[in-house]
Amino acid sequence: MTTSTIQEITRYIVGFHAPDLAGEGIPTDYDLITNGVIDSLAMLEVVEWVQQRWAISILDSEISQADFRTIGAIADFIARAGAPANPS
């Protein structure tokens, strides 16, 4: 998990799902689901964004709440998917 990946995920989450947290920052282990930042529909939006941004394909069977529960988990998922840090 790279710092730039974490920063980009954080910017996306704050910009589209948690503008109230913009000034505070979000720890990488902050539970986005339990704290109401994202729900099941928003999680699918995050999955779609990850696919587009990192040029990876995610099968429905690969989508797990655990992989999208925190910013750190999302970054780990991206790394496991073998996505380049800056796709062309």
Automatic annotation (TrEMBL):
InterPro entries: ACP-like_sf, PP-bd_ACP. Residues 4-82 form the Carrier domain. Gene3D superfamilies: ACP-like. It comes from the Bacteria. SUPFAM superfamilies: ACP-like. This is Carrier domain-containing protein. The lineage of its organism: Bacteria, Bacillati, Actinomycetota, Actinomycetes, Micrococcales.
